Structures are given as structure tokens and as C-alpha cells.
Amino acid sequence: MKETFTIGGLPALTLAEEYGLPLYVYDAGIIRRQFERMYRAFEVPDLRINYATKALSNISILRYLNHLGSCLDAVSIGEVQLGIQAGFSKDRIMYTPNMVSLDEIRQVMEMGISMNIDNIEMLEALGHEYPGLEIGIRVNPHVMAGGNQKISVGHIDSKFGISFHQMPLVRRLTDHLGIRIKGVHMHTGSDILDVGVFLQAAEILLNVAKEFPDLDYIDFGSGFKVKYKPEDYETDIEEFGKELGKRFRKFCKEYGKELTLVFEPGKFIVSESGYFLVRTNLIKQTTSTVFAGVNSGFQHLGRPMMYGSHHEIENVSHPEGKPRLYTVVGYICETDTFAYNRKIPEIQVGDVLCMRNAGAYCFTMASHYNSRLLPAEVMVLDGKSYLIRERDEFADLLTHQVDPKLPL
């Protein structure tokens, strides 16, 4: 009997026929499962989950997370504005920028949004401009963590954060300018598997926290690894929650105040919820390789080319076919390879393929490269599908382009 590939209980082929290809589909049930799983993992008096907007910023996804009780992590004024548009109250948005202008920070400050600042120069400038400033700081713990150098952001040469060795300077500055540090923050990187490495960085941040007597929160960032293959490992969030929760409760007792424990998960919440459906354009046999060319490329899903990431690929149209080795590639005028020599049930021209783990850092990093149109996005909630982004049309390529009537 032919197996039916479903997303949130709906046949993927039906979704492909209804909405067209290529197509991003998100299963809201998985988002809920991951959010609730994380919330249960930490036994602390006050836990705050700030969903990392950059992972998947469609406003319908943000509204759903707001409904679940999530708060928001924003790294740009645009993400702040998206959060407000999605219904998040300003006190439930945290802005943690990097290398942005003072003008942007002023705009967010005037909006009444809390923020974490990650460099001393900006902290000093704000202290002079805003008497009685209350703000958080992002600390660099000098810990190399993460599944790829490009997504490891807490090491000594990272552009992110204030070195924990510079805390005496921060203290002198804040004392002199009357700045209240109300929170300390770190983020070591993404795809962290070793709980021990994370706990090592956590100890560094807790030691920094002792330097500031009037904190409200400690923010440990995120970066938890999810499964990319059936046999893959993932961060044991339950073990981590048990260990860090115990350590955090002990710290609060020693500190003399119950603080809020904050995390900023993005990939952990939405990665597994995403499915990217494409159609096979061509099967091409070379001397040593069988290529399956699809109607997409790295302009739609760039993680395999940018980070070497693995996305499971399934033949939705013929899941019962005899497995063969395929190199799955896109139609972009670059080397845009989704998978090398991957064992997939025999693919024919016209078959629908599905790339899993397409919820995080996929559509949000998409572009119009090669003048290709952006795909539609669909959300499956309680057994029903909802269009949450229309497919691009040619006119979208010309949006904001202006004809200045050049004297040609």
C-alpha cells in the first residue's frame, strides 16, 4: 500500500496541489510541542522564553507564539516592530542588537523596549544621553560552542558581547554614570550538543552576575541542537533544564533575590515544524553522479550551502520506490547543492520532494537572487491549512525600483 506523507495530518501532495510549489509548510502542533517541552524543562520560580524572531519571522507564526505565552527576542528595529504588530506588549520584547547605529538604538529606546547592549562604547554613550539608564549587557564568555564556526558567537574573537574580563571597566563606567545593570546575557552559538560546555559558560555568566547587585534577570541565550537525521543526537533539554535549574535556584538563594531565568530559543522551537516542498525538474546522469534538479535553489533554502547543514529529503510522490543515490541540486546559476549522494526512493521528473527541518533560518534568509520569486508559506493548525504568505509575482521583483527617466 502506498504510504502517504502528511504534515500536521494533511497529505503533503494535497498541500502541494492546493498552494503550488515550491512551498514552505509549518506544523503548528510541533511548535507547540517544542515550546511546552522547553517550558516544562526548567524548575525555577520565574522562567521567560524569548522566541528568537530571526529564526522564522512570519507574523502568523509570531502571533501563534504570542498565543502560547512566548515573549520575543529581537535583533533589529524591524523585528521589534513585527513583534508589536503581532500583538506582543512592549514589556515582552527584548532587543539585543549587534553593531547597529546609535540612531537605531535611540529609536528602540524611545519605544520603551528593554535591551541588552554588547559593547562598552555604546553603553557609555547611552549612559551620558539617558540619565538613570537601566539596561542589560551581553557578555562574551570566551567559550567555543556550536556546530559550525559561522554560528559560534561566544569565542574570544567574536564580534558579539563584552568580554567577561572587561567587567571591572563596566563596573567603573556604570558607577560613574549612574547606570543600573538590570540583566546579564550571553549566547555561545547554535547547535550545541554538549550540555557540559553550556554549563561551563553558564558558570562564567553567573560569576559575572555577582558583580551587579540589582539584577532582574539572567539570560542564557539558546543554541540547542535539534535532530536533523532520524539517528541524530539532540540537546537533552530535560537533563539541561534539571541541571541548570538546580544551579540557578542555588545562585538566586546566594544572591538574595529571585531572578528571572531567560532563554532565547529559535531553532529549537520552529526548526522541526518546517517542511519545504519542491518539484523535480530534471534527472541528469553524468559519468559518476545522478543529479535530481528541483524548482528551487539556495535563494530559497541556503543553509546546506552556507553551513553545510543536513536536511532529510524524502520522495513524497513515490516513497515506496527502490532507493538510489542522488545529488539533489537547485536551478540557480551557482553550485547550489542540497544533498550529495543521498539515498532516496527512485525519483522521476515531476516528483514532489520534501526537505525537513525547514522551519528555522530558511525562508527568513531567502532572496530574489537570479530574479527568482519567493515561495508561499502555509501553516497547518488543528488539521486545517492556512496561507500565511502569498507566492511572489513578477511585480514583486520590481517593488521599490524606480525609473528615474535616465537621459539615454
Describe it.
The protein contains 12 helices and 20 strands. With 408 residues, it is an alpha/beta fold. Strands 3, 13, 14, 15, 16, 17, 18, 19 and 20 form a 9-stranded mixed sheet that branches. β7, α6 and β8 form a beta-alpha-beta unit. α2 packs across α9 and α8 runs parallel beside α9. The N and C termini lie far apart (65 Å).
Overview features:
408 residues; alpha/beta; Lyase, Ornithine Decarboxylase, Chain A, domain 1; TIM Barrel; 2 domains; nine-stranded mixed sheet; eight-stranded parallel β-barrel; 12 helices; 29% helix
How would you briefly describe this protein structure?
29% of the residues lie in helices and 25% in strands. The protein has helices at residues 12-19, 28-41, 59-68, 77-85, 102-110, 120-129, 167-177, 195-209, 237-255, 267-270, 303-307, 394-398, and strands at residues 6-7, 10-11, 23-27, 47-52, 71-74, 93-95, 114-117, 134-140, 162-163, 180-185, 217-219, 260-263, 274-285, 290-294, 313-315, 323-329, 337-345, 352-355, 376-381, 384-389. The radius of gyration is 23 Å and the shape is globular.
